[in-house]
Specification:
By secondary structure, the chain is an alpha/beta fold. It has a single domain, classed as Class I glutamine amidotransferase (GATase) domain (Rossmann fold). The chain has six helices and 13 strands. A nine-stranded mixed β-sheet has the order 2-1-3-4-13-12-11-8-9. A four-stranded mixed β-sheet has the order 6-5-7-10, covered by helices on one side. A hairpin with a 5-residue loop joins β5 and β6. The chain is globular, with a radius of gyration of 16 Å. The two termini are about 20 Å apart.
Length: about 210
């Protein structure tokens, strides 16, 4: 029986592109949904995110029971989970974009603005950049991916850092904990590199 991947629709994601990328990576059943019952029944969960941390957090929490069901399915049920861009940032304890906003708190840390350490460095960090894995690589492999962000995740525990990139200094490119992986880059825009990551996610047995 084909596995069902729930692509969570909370009004803040590039859903069409992510769904198409998952299908291209070999997923037979991608369900775009805001229904907590569908998320609860899914085999794997993808949380995308485009926009500000605050808007994404508020959009997710505007859907009754969705946050609780995500925690139930991922933290208790151990469903493989992939967060993309702001969907990765929401794993943090707190984001400070447009004021302090609580995240999901699944991986301790804060989402803060990228600091301009060199006038030549452009913010937002936009375009292709190298992904360098750490010893906690989880699904992530070295390569080149597409980024678009002005804020970055600073985990409290370095053991949760799965990969780094450089943009005027080191920025976290991916985080991982148990059955949870988040990537700051966009796999759906990262061509062969992104499709390979999604393929590994679909086959992943944490």
């Amino acid at each position: 029986m084909a596995e069902v991947v729930a692509l969570v629709d909370y009004g803040a994601g590039n859903l069409h592109s992510v769904a198409n990328a998952l299908k291209a990576a070999g997923c037979d059943t991608v369900t775009v949904t805001a229904n907590p019952d569908v998320v609860r029944a899914a085999d794997r969960i993808v949380l995308p995110g485009v926009g500000s941390f605050r808007a994404c957090a508020e959009g997710l929490r505007a859907i009754p029971h969705l946050e609780e069901v995500l925690a139930e399915r991922v933290l208790v049920g151990a469903a493989p989970f992939l967060g993309i861009c702001v969907g990765m940032q929401l794993l943090a304890t707190l984001g400070v974009e447009h004021g302090s906003t609580p995240g999901l708190g699944w991986i301790g840390g804060e989402v803060r603005p990228i600091e301009r350490t060199d006038p030549a460095i452009k913010i937002p960090h936009m375009g292709w950049n190298d992904v360098e894995v750490t010893r906690h690589a989880a699904l992530v492999e070295a390569g080149e991916a597409y980024f678009l962000h002005s804020y970055h995740f600073q985990p409290e525990d370095g053991h949760h850092v799965a990969a780094m990139t450089d943009h005027g200094g080191g920025l976290v490119a991916a985080v991982a904990r148990d059955n949870i992986v988040g990537v700051q880059f966009h796999p759906e825009k990262s061509q062969a590199y992104g499709l390979a990551l999604l393929r590994r996610f679909l086959e992943w047995k944490p």
